[in-house]
User: What shape does this take?
Amino acid sequence: MPYPVVFLPGNVVQPQAGPGQGMFVRRLELLELSGLSDVVGGGDIVARTPDPQARRFEYKKFLQRDLAKYDKGEPLHSTPSLAQFMALVEGLVYGHLTLKMYDLHDVNFDVPNRLRYLTVLSNRLGRVLGGTDPEVLVFSAANAADFSDLELANNQTRDSDGVQAQELLRGFKENLQTRGWWHPDHILWMKLLDHLFFTTTPMGPINLDALKNGWKQVGPVTLKVDINASSAQYRSLYLPVYESGYRDRGLRALSGVVAPTTGGLQLMVNNQVVGKILMPNPGAAGVQSTIRLGAGNLVLQDSVDLAAPIRINYDQLRPHLQSLVTFLRTVPNPVQHVAQDSPFEYPDAIRIPIQHDGFIALDGLRGTSTGGFSERFIERMKGKRIINVSPLSEGNTPPCLIQNQLIHCFADTRQGAVVFYVEEYQGQSVEELRLLGYILWSVFDKNAEVDENQRAVVMRGRPVLDFSGDRFEIRTNLHCEWPNPRVKAATLQRLVGVLEDGGVPLLFRESVKYWINAGFSHPIQPLVSTPSPINIGPYRWFINNI
Amino acid sequence: MSDAIVAVGGTGKRAALLYLKLVNTWKPVNLASPGGNIFVVDMEPQPGTPDALLNDQLQSAGVPTSHFVSPVPSSARVDRTITLRRFMGFGEARDGDSSQVAHTLYNNQQLSVQIIKGMNCEPTVGATVASRRFVVSNPEAEVQYLEDRLASFDRTIVVGSIIGGTGAGVIPRLVYWLHKRLPAKLVYGLLFLQWIEIPEGDVDEPNDVKMAGNTKAWLNYLIEHHPEKEYGEGDTLFQHYVLIGKPERMPLNQAGSDSHHPLHLLGALYLLQFDTFLQLAPGATGPHYLELSTGITPGSIQMGDDTMEKAVIREKLFAAILAELKEQQPDEALSPFTLFAPTTLAWKPFISTLEKIAAKWNRRRHLDEDWKKIAGFFDAERKVSEDRVEELKALTATMPGARDVFDFDWTMISQHADANLADARRLVKRNLTEAPVAFPGHEQALSGVAAHFINQLRSTLRQMSIK
Assistant: This one.
């Protein structure tokens, strides 16, 4: 053998003629190491990497190699790993694949955190086709026949619901991009999606609202999103799936009866099972583990009655889902966070209610106070996706009347907390001021009675106003009326006279004034009288004596 | 600096054995107990198999039995037919059917490997098994002992192949464990590429295709862990590591052959010279390879102040002088007239030592018998010494492909040894001193004084300046 000689196969490194005799230890450059990998044979290795999760690593390698070929013009069908990647991603967003999350600690795998939860992708027959991976999104573990079936199913969907599914996927990308989490030059799965799915320049940003009725999410899966070593590089995200009519069915299913069942919550509408919220058993790791295993994923049947009303059943959902939203306490603007900024970080049992009912959903799921608003207001704002109601602005010092483009209300204070009586919000009539005025008029005119506890008002035998301890609640079925001014002129004048009494609380005064102004076109002159005082809740009011 | 060598799998054991053979031939002063720095991580072999023979040889060469550690947790070793599927408990997950996990990560062939019998050329299986053994916190006594012993060395060199199932599979996890448990210790690697060819046979058996696949997968794994790799893992396996593969035209060993390959000896030489290399390149990181500018001559292999050539000559002198000792007669040994004889070694230290033994145990009538026993010890040691040199000769001169690596002129070495024999004899004769006989029994005294003289002989020859 001619000297000098290198003890590696394939002439990937040329010997260096140098001074000295004998054995030299020389550095192998990265390119030379890659060259060595190319000359040792081995073909397309499958599951031979020295790691329990070999397939992930190998698939990543194939993807890198095939992407380089694809970028040089090779067709997709001659780059098998890319074809598989596309098939798996399409199968996922078209809903042909189901995801199931496993905690590898349960099978005693000692793995880094980012790989702890393995998401298995399987077809409708339960056959495994692959898994998800933080670096490459999906990896393949399928045989040729199962792939062929998947590709066939994808072909049938691509030009129908597939269009919206790909739009939704683009929306997913844009959402991450907005958050500074899109680094295709450094993160392979992003580069793959850019090269294979987002090849055309979009006309404009995706309107996720336009896709909302088919917007479903599955997961969560752990994905690399950041390359900054000082921040969390991996995030737990839900992947978008387009399923036509999913939201309509989901909202109705969530409005049904909720009953715990094995591994989840059964949802029933009209005595029929229409779906399930997955709630895996919490492991030793607690609620985080439950979420990572898929808690809050919504699985719906096609049989949901679309005529059924939408009134999300927070009372029955709350005991089970409360733990999934507790950590939102530390998030600033949590409703906006879930509904708009970061919807792909939340399971559908949380996302869909919050995107539908806004802050009401979050309060409903958490069981917390609705921010000083009445039940009547909450009831009317359901489905309006109100992110944040904060009527108070600089210069408003309760108790005071607030009237701006957004809201017309009275802000009252009770034991340091502010409560609101809303007349109108975003053009939606709530009528709390005029109704409170009407009730007070009725009490004054002896058409309504204050109960013996002085906490409620009863009109024609029906309670119309309660003092809950924090605020007055107006019965939602009450309608406002005005008396004939010719018949009740003197009483009305005495009422206006009462309002000028300094002892009338501001809330009552403004409510009655609003009721009067809304019902009578002419001003009513005040008339002094000596009505009998009475307490309604914490406030003083009067009953006409004449 | 002290180095522990962790030999993983069959190839690792071969390199470690040859390293030990070199060390035992060399007898460096700083290695009090050769073999004490060798640790073996491999499955327990079935008795009578080539693998078991390799273990026996390692033990004979000085590796303590406590240094042999299985990569399989002890709880799984009670059943030799346990498969990977059963070992991992697939199908027994608390929530849901974990067989889906099994099929996502493994193929059926891997799930059916009977792990106690070997990893069947499936590194993914080896890695999986090791991931349960070399966990960050493992209370098993064997693993704790390994950690405690390794902690007493400054550096660890992990040796094994990347072509099979055990070495290729276990090494990454073992290195991870070393980093976690002994974070202050640097870990180096010596990784062998293909050195044997195995034609395709049963689907479950190792073959060339699988070995090539394993090699490629491992190299990709190393690329993935290369700090300069885009999209790479970024973490470091070894401080630095050397890859050894066969150059073009060097033959591979044939399947079924139990002989070593020249690459193993080259690896052993690297281990032997490791300290020298580190002194030349103290901050070396990443992958390395070996290059020979010429065939390795015994004079170019340096260890400390000595060369392999001198070590071999000393070993030959050692054997030659022991042979001469054996040939003496007891009466000759006791004769005062032989003291000045030029060719015999019947010197005063032998005479006085034998007399003390005779006096202490009343053996004056059995001097002949006692001397024969002492001479027997000399002869046994001579045989071991000659065998070592012959083995080295076989490895460097007659092993197929060895001439591509080594340039050992054994005729010249013998001539040098012969030329130094007279000087050696003179020196030994001058330096040999009487042996103490403070032994509890007569038999122990005979073996004890033999050992004393043998050590004196080695020590004297080590001080000798070889021409």
Notes: The first strand of chain B starts at residue 3 and ends at 8. The radius of gyration of chain B is 26 Å. The mean pLDDT of chain B is 86. Chain B touches chain A through 88 residues (CB under 8 Å).
